[in-house]
């Protein structure tokens, strides 16, 4: 099940490719059906990975294949720019006051705007900048919307696709503001499967240190990860000592080829339980 | 041997196993293997048992010759275990059985579950000693004072008894789940492969094994590829191949180095960009690899196809056979219900002219290589009259369904044929459905 959302104005029913069908190397249209299907596939895959808690050791081959599928989806969503929206949306999901101060910061619209701007690397060009601004506006709008409906958990998941529908220029948008590190901007070409990008995004959903200092700059939100803590081996062997993880936490442990150039400790962290909660909602709805 | 596959007429011969539809989990067949002469047929099941059938070779000269396989031996090979360190159960399911070439009167086979390989000796006993001087009939020792004469026991015939005894237990060598075992042509060593490593054993030595392939990354978070199957070359004792979840096959020469992490050859077909989807990698994952008997080719099975590779050509297979291409549009559903992860096996016939593999709805497929003909047959109780000829089946992918065709949506995905075996010399095949073993033979024998 996926959250309800506003239908994109640009959807072209005649050309929507099915998920299992051929997705050629050309730019894929971000129709709502396709992106919802893709989101559904992503959710399905994460649930499959989570359900490895049986008495018997899970099948490693199956887990690796599902994990690779998740990475593929995430890479494509990164290229489409939808990944950043989703991660920010989930990060901004309402949380109790004693949780991350950082998350609370994200919920403040003005900070969100500043936050969305600050980690951006060298802009690629004037067109890019315009699109980035549009994105920020929409993200901020989404945040505001979320702050208003803070008490209602359902709305947090409901606004996930909303940003998709708001801006027509999105399918061409490059993924940029999700780069939290100081690395130069990944190549603009959409067909470059940037492994570094993948690695950054995999670090998005993880909480390691619950109380970073209250600082509006987004970079302050990100703390170092201890990768061995979420060792894939540990995850997949279903050790009971592993704490309950939200579905997107798995993404961190699935970091692909660690590109040596990538600087560590520059990923966004989100509240574990909050994601879990949201996931339950998405699954349960 | 009989002619090519399309000329063959396959008839039902026998079916083994429970009739009722309610399948007991322990009865699920997990492996099927003929021995080197084809006289013995072994099956392993999820309950850790091995059942061996023996071919009754009677009336071989009669035109209506029908070889019957009857139960020869049944034994419990593996028991469920508990890994206390990980708090996980180790299944007793038999993943693979491999026969050793016969050296003496006894038969030997290797059977493995996820963690432990065992060497079993199956021997016949058809005589028993009688006339002990010092013992009573029931084994009690006689009173020495009552013995007045010396007698040597005499061996007298008895009803055939088949005994299976474990001769070696090869354990504690695999962190991950064993998916393959393969006996070397030198008859002294064998390999066992799990998801990340391949070990070499000496059949006589159980406390030591050599690691020859290790693809485990230092950081498990970087794991993107696993070993799915491995096999020794049938003739060259230094050569082995292993397949991966990314659709590649690596050929290794053990003479090159002790650790065969560097392959000698890498077999990989470039991906067809027009067929690319989120499921491309999953369906490219190879579930089985088998050398041809003559050692010139190898066959791989991925989710939708069977490919035959020439060992001298790495960049693409020489033949590709579509097993159930009509499933390509259903991949999302098959991913959802996990069927996309089913591991189908494949096998060669004795002279490498035909290859066979299973599918869903209890269908299995045969591809005749030189004539490029293929046939789909079904293993079902309805077609189980003695010597009943199997009618070819057809799946309708779309459009108007003809009579006798079955539409894709009517296929039963719970009825899958994962394990098939072909007699090494004759046209006799063993096909395992979930809990039944079907034996078919060619009418023209």
From TrEMBL, chain B:
One of its GO terms (cellular component) is protein phosphatase type 2A complex. Keywords: Repeat, WD repeat. GO terms for molecular function: protein phosphatase regulator activity. Pfam families: WD40. The keyword Repeat applies. PP2A consists of a common heterodimeric core enzyme, composed of a 36 kDa catalytic subunit (subunit C) and a 65 kDa constant regulatory subunit (PR65 or subunit A), that associates with a variety of regulatory subunits. Belongs to the phosphatase 2A regulatory subunit B family. PANTHER family: PROTEIN PHOSPHATASE PP2A REGULATORY SUBUNIT B. This is Serine/threonine-protein phosphatase 2A 55 kDa regulatory subunit B. The lineage of its organism: Eukaryota, Metazoa, Chordata, Craniata, Vertebrata.
